[in-house]
Amino acid sequence: xxxxxxxxxxxxAEPMRLIRRYPLNEDVHFFQVRxxxxxxxxxxxxxxxxxxxxxxxxxxxxxxxISSTPSRPGLLEFGIRRVGRMTNQIFKLxxxxxxxxxxxxxxxxxxxxxxxxxxxxxxxGLGAVPLRSLLLYALDNRDRFGKIYLIHxxxxxxxxxxxxxxxxxxxxxxxxxxxxxxxxDTGEWPYDTGMVTRLIPRIKDIDPDNxxxxxxxxxxxxxxxxxEVLQLNVPKHxxxxxxxxxxxxxVGKCGHCIIGGYVYTCLEGxxxxxxxxxxxxxxx
Length: 284
Fold this sequence. Notes:
alpha/beta, Elongation Factor Tu (Ef-tu), domain 3, Rossmann fold, 6-stranded antiparallel sheet
């Protein structure tokens, strides 16, 4: 079910209540929200990798990736970075504030196709937000997936999103979890130090033809990560990249996110295979 306040108007947002918020680092905060109408909250369906449009009267609206998992219904979670006028206002919101949300939009990950496969999740920086949704879904439905690898990189320990959450995952027996930071000035970081690409060769005992690899992070990261993943012999169509583009309407009307003259990221993305990427100029 798509959540809008009117089925006739796709731009009409549903009232949402801010339930919980806290900082993930200095510039990114965690927001947990729920529809004011509890029936609509429980009916909302989405796939990991999709996004919602958040609106504030007088300030406009903006797209944000969903970080929660549909396997835990009733709540939506976001990791939002403060970058401008709209997000500055979002950062001023207090618990119990009501604002508008519509969606979900985008294609998301092909969850049903991915079930039964090994799964490698590679995230960097803000890419942890949408890939956390996929990771939590896979862990909540652990019997539907083969081996699961998580590789997460950040510039430094303070900037690693969901840091404590991933620390706890290091103790799981059903997840191969590798964490790294580019540098650690504190000397207290307990795990790897260096680029995220250094951890990819640690992926062992997977069947390349039965493995989905998902990647999300800063643009500079994609080329180097994919080069390493290709060394594992994973087919190009099984390498999935969730790409951040400036999206405005979410329904393919404004043309703000168009690529190559005909691909609308808000409709046909934001998840693309590496096969798509190499056959379409401008995706990354």
